[in-house]
Amino acid sequence: MRNPKRAEKIAFFFLFLATLLIVVPVGLIVVIIIQKGSPAINWQFLTDIPRQGMRAGGILPAIVGTVYLVLGAIIFALPIGVLSAVYLSEYAKDNFLTRIIKLAIINLAGVPSVVYGLFGLALFVVFFRFGASILSGSLTLGIMILPIIITTSREALESVPYSFREVSRSLGASKWQSISSIVLPNAISGILTGTILGLGRAAGETAPILFTVAAFYLPQLPSSIFHQAMALPYHLYVISTQVPNVDEKIRYGTALVLLALVLFMNLVAIIIRYKFRKKKKW
What we know:
CATH class: Mainly Alpha
Distance between the termini: 41 Å
CATH architecture: Orthogonal Bundle
Number of domains: 1
Low-confidence stretches: none
Oligomer: single chain
Number of helices: 11
Radius of gyration: 23 Å
Structural class: mainly alpha
């Protein structure tokens, strides 16, 4: 007769092993980046412009450019993504067309980023004539993270018990009042989860900004959304492949700053999500 406790221990062992196979390599990468990049981190490195052909100085323009691009992408994608999710989960009828749209959104989340870069180049840079600019880059990144935000927001909305809607409607509230006052507040933590995922992807992508905004070198900060900007992912690519004789600690220091920036943005979003989750009634 099969021993259920033994089978459970075996299952837990393989689950633990699978977790180690994921966590250990990621942990080693982080440790190596910190070990090799921390000697480069100082006040000058964080607040100065690149000098001597990007072999010295700092990375301030790249940090500022990355923050501008990520904020622009979230400002564009979050409202559209949430409103699209509300329509698909609360208003759209469950028919063949709706199912095709939902499947298309899920598939768009897996499209390579270089395809979004070419799309942004054709639409925003050329067709709308925004040129290579922060606006073009932000809109391209926003479109790239839209499927993630729509999918996670829709799942968060659908996870809210239907009885909440019924009680609200029975008290005389309209459908939109029920959604805005009851459903959305209870789904906000799940929506912020999608925002966190979008933040991480927008901050770390190189291909979309390569076609739409990234500059090889700029000695000053951008002063308009129609200006080009440096960005940490592209800057890291440039100093690692295009500029010879760059000190190793500068490359790893740039990677460490990018990693810290993404973690900081995620931490802020997680704290906000935690505060909203504490207000949940279920």
